[in-house]
Design goal:
By secondary structure, this protein is an alpha+beta fold. It contains seven helices and six strands. Helix 2 runs antiparallel to helix 3, helix 2 runs antiparallel to helix 4 and helix 2 runs antiparallel to helix 6. It is elongated. The model has no long low-confidence stretch (mean pLDDT 81).
Length: 398
């Protein structure tokens, strides 16, 4: 809402500046009543009473020889566009935040599923140990450690439930809603499609970034303000005219013989201002240099963010392949150690150790899936809203 209010303010200021191109029309009038003394006698003892009146239509127009009004309009329009790009920047950030929060929620769902599966696995192991303990095959130590592993796995579930609730509330706040569960979450994180990003993204995509366009419009406005400050060294030329009726008596105001008109050309300029105009010009130039540096820095940051997001996207693909290999290997280790334990060829430690290594490996794989999708979201934001261009523009850019 704050951004929208600023846009409305900037739009109004731009319209206000644009109005200076046109003549300013106005009207005025007056009516007075008085009595003049006669023959040196007091007005109360004689004389004449009069009630002069006047009404006219005025016009004023400043001739924009030096471009002051034109440059003021350039500055106002650039400031308006800057607020519009600021709005788009807020919207882009909001979309990216919602997408990232949603992926984080799906990742927490996946961790919850892993935790529940792990709890069930440890529960089955505990039952196996208890049965073997009852049969005199396993020791009480085996059972105790199996119970500890089960309790440790179960303790993560309430913590994950709290995190899921907090993430749902975060999404609701971002969407401007009351805190509520996110329904119909669809597929889990590992099943969501990971988009393919084409190679050789053209630099023209960065031209859509709201922060770059915002910095560009601020630079345009600052440049126009330098022009405005420069025109203050020169005189202003104006034309003033009026057309109306003037009469010494109100009753004769409408008489055509009492009409009046006039045209006046004006010239006004500085002679001595104590250095004020020069100081204002220097300030405008310094402000322009500040915005120029900000513009260049914004471009550098944009290239850096795109590079970081692209690097993360490609490297995380490699990381995920290795994480998946680790999970597959640990799953096989759990299966084999359980079979060996049942056959009496291995102790309880092998089974619990394999299960305890599988749990964090699965979580790391889920976190890698999340990091992959977050890297896509960051690239989407870094490119100002995605990497798609119309086919003709794409060919031209390449």
């Amino acid at each position: 809402l704050t951004v929208i209010s600023r846009i409305e303010q900037s739009r109004a200021l731009a319209a206000q500046a644009r109005s200076q191109f046109f003549p300013q029309l106005g009207y005025q009038g007056y009516l007075s009543k008085g009595k003049n003394s006669a023959g040196g006698m007091p007005a109360s003892m004689g004389g004449t009473t009069n009630d002069p009146a006047m009404i006219d239509l005025d016009a004023f127009w400043e001739v924009d020889i030096w471009g002051r009004i034109r440059r003021q309009n350039e500055a106002a329009n650039a400031m308006y566009m800057a607020t519009e790009w600021a709005r788009r920047g807020v919207m882009l950030s909001l979309v990216a935040e919602v997408a990232q929060a949603y992926y984080e929620l799906l990742e927490l769902d996946l961790e919850m599923q892993i935790a529940c599966d792990t709890k069930k696995s440890f529960s089955d192991t505990l039952k196996l140990f208890e049965d073997r303990f009852q049969g005199g095959i396993a020791s009480e130590l085996d059972v105790a450690r199996a119970r500890a592993a089960l309790a440790s796995a179960a303790s993560t579930i309430p913590f994950l439930e709290q995190q899921i609730l907090a993430k749902e509330n975060q999404i609701a706040v971002l969407l401007g809603r009351n805190p509520e569960p996110v329904e119909n979450r669809g597929r889990l994180l590992e099943r969501t499609l990971l988009v393919d990003i084409p190679a050789g993204l053209p630099a023209q995509l960065l031209e859509r970034r709201p922060d770059i366009r915002l910095a560009e419009e601020n630079l345009k406005a600052a440049n126009a303000k330098v022009g405005v400050a420069y025109t203050n060294f020169f005189p202003t030329i104006s034309l003033t005219s009026f057309l109306g009726q003037v009469s010494p008596e109100l009753s004769e105001l409408s008489d055509s013989n009492n009409s009046a008109w006039g045209v006046l050309g004006g010239l006004a300029g500085p002679v001595f201002q104590g250095g004020r105009i020069l100081a204002e010009y220097d300030r405008a130039k310094a402000e322009y240099e500040e915005y120029r540096q900000q513009y260049l820095q914004t471009i550098i940051v944009a290239f850096s963010e795109v590079s970081n997001a692209l690097t993360a996207y490609h490297r995380l693909k490699e990381v995920r392949v290795e994480k998946q290999k680790a999970v597959t290997a640990y799953e096989e280790a759990v299966r084999m150690s359980t079979e060996r334990y049942v056959a009496g060829k291995a102790g309880y430690y092998e089974v619990l150790d394999a299960q305890q290594q599988l749990f964090p490996a699965q979580n790391q794989l889920a976190q890698t899936d999340l990091a992959q999708r977050v890297s896509v979201v960051k690239l989407y934001k870094a490119l100002g809203g995605g990497w798609s261009l119309p086919s003709e523009e794409w060919k031209k850019a390449q």
